Structure formats: C-alpha cells, structure tokens
C-alpha cells in the first residue's frame, strides 16, 4: 500500500503537496483495513485506558507526518536514500520493542528483520560500488 503512494508521488512530482499524497495513501489504507476486518471477522476494539488511546493517536499522527516528510524528500532528492531509510524502520521498530518495551520478538520476526536489514545493506553497498567504480563510464 505504501508502494502505491510512493509510485503516485514519483508520478506527480512536485505538482501537488506531499500532505495530499499522504492523505491519499491514508484514505486508500482505510478501506483495505476495514475489508480485511470484515473478511477475517475480527472486531475493532479501542483500548480502555485513555493513555493507550493517546499513544495510538500520536502514533498515527507520527506516521502521517513521516509519510509527508518522506514524500517531500522524494520530490527533492533521488529516491534511493529515502527508500533505504524507509526499509530500516523495521529494524528500528524491533530495537524499540526490545529496549523500551522489554519484549523479545519470536525467532521468525528476528529472521525477517535480519533479512530486511541485510537487503538494505546489500543495496547500499551495491549502489556505492556502482557509483564509485562506474561513475565515469558511459
């Protein structure tokens, strides 16, 4: 779903506001989430504690602002660094889960995070190698 938003952003370029693209991605995700809940027959339950509700609200606002900043960055710069940072947020989320919440993820989650981090490292090394060694060849 985020890929749809990034493709839209690359297509429209600087013609529209990054906030509008973030809003479009958010509005695209909403019906997908609702239909997923209907298919899996799961219930949407708000937390009882107001602190948890505030954390959910601030988390959603943070993700929205992250998308807006990422979209703005993609209009100004090459997409490579932005996509690499976007892929590393999985590893950061696991780090926060272990350090802040003292909750160790299961083995498959750790393997998935290692796959994501290793692919980001390989893409970065590949880009550096290509840019450095083949910079002047045409």
Distance between the termini: 36 Å
- Describe the global form: globular
What about the largest sheet?
A: none
Low-confidence stretches: none
Tell me the number of strands. Answer: 0
Q: Which structural class do you get from the secondary structure elements?
A: mainly alpha
Question: What does the model show?
Answer:
This protein is mainly α and 138 residues long. Helix content is 79%, strand content 0%. It contains 5 helices and no strands. The chain is globular, with a radius of gyration of 18 Å. It starts with a helix and ends in a 5-residue tail after the last helix.
Question: What's the structural blueprint in terms of helices and strands?
Answer:
Layout: H1 2-12, H2 18-40, H3 50-76, H4 79-99, H5 107-133
Please outline what is shown here.
The chain has 138 residues and is mainly α. The chain has helices at residues 2-12, 18-40, 50-76, 79-99, 107-133.
């Amino acid at each position: 779903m985020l890929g749809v938003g990034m493709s839209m952003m690359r297509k429209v370029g600087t013609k529209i506001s990054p906030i509008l693209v973030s809003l479009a991605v958010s509005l695209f995700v909403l019906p997908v989430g609702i239909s997923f809940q209907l298919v899996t027959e799961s219930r949407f339950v708000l937390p009882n504690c107001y602190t948890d509700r505030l954390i959910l609200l601030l988390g959603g606002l943070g993700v929205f602002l992250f998308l807006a900043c990422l979209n703005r960055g993609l209009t100004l710069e090459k997409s490579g660094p932005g996509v690499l940072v976007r892929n590393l947020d999985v590893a950061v989320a696991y780090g926060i889960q272990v350090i802040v919440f003292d909750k160790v993820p299961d083995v498959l989650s750790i393997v998935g995070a290692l796959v994501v981090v290793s692919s980001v490292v390989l893409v970065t090394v590949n880009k550096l190698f290509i840019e450095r060694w083949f910079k002047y060849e045409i």
